[in-house]
Amino acid sequence: MRNTTRYPVEGPNSLWHVYKTVPFWKVVKNFVVIQLARYTPFLGMKNWLYRTFLRMDVGEQTSFALMVMLDVMFPEKISVGRNTVIGYNTTILAHEYLVREYRLGDVEIGDEVMIGANSTILPGVKIGSGAIVSAGTLVHKDVPEGCFVGGNPMRLIYTKEELEAHMNQQDADVKPQLRKY
């Protein structure tokens, strides 16, 4: 189960209560910053924008590809480790507005994580260091350190040990093909 905090609402669905849960001007500021960052080709500038204006914890040499969409209401609940790659058009959410409640949860992405393009990361999940998330994956639960996951719904493809063995086998298969010139 994802680690989220639930907030029940009465009356209309929880999205009708949105500005009771997050200030309007905070959403406007976050929207402008996120849109600027989505289109800028300068990785260092993106990280600076996220750290400075969105209060996100972003590690050194982390790369957010073009069109990454961060949670516009609670980006400060997202942390990303060092030397991580977030692929094109990935969405990272820290909130869910449902009919009778809304939920908030921190998203923790470790060091040296690879997240493929067009993935969606839901609130309250932790992606361990060294993990690989295949393109187009819906990350709806925690990803253990060093694992390779993918799909919708997300499933484990390789454990850390299986992935290391698979990579070592690929290296062994390539070596006989190499020639010295």
From TrEMBL:
The keyword Cell wall biogenesis/degradation does not apply. The keyword Transferase applies. Keywords: Transferase. InterPro entries: Hexapep (IPR001451), Trans_hexapeptide_repeat (IPR050179), Trimer_LpxA-like_sf (IPR011004). One of its GO terms (molecular function) is transferase activity. Pfam families: Hexapep. CDD domains: LbH_MAT_like (cd04647). PANTHER family: ACETYLTRANSFERASE (PTHR43300), ACETYLTRANSFERASE YVOF-RELATED (PTHR43300:SF6). This is Acetyltransferase. It comes from Priestia koreensis.
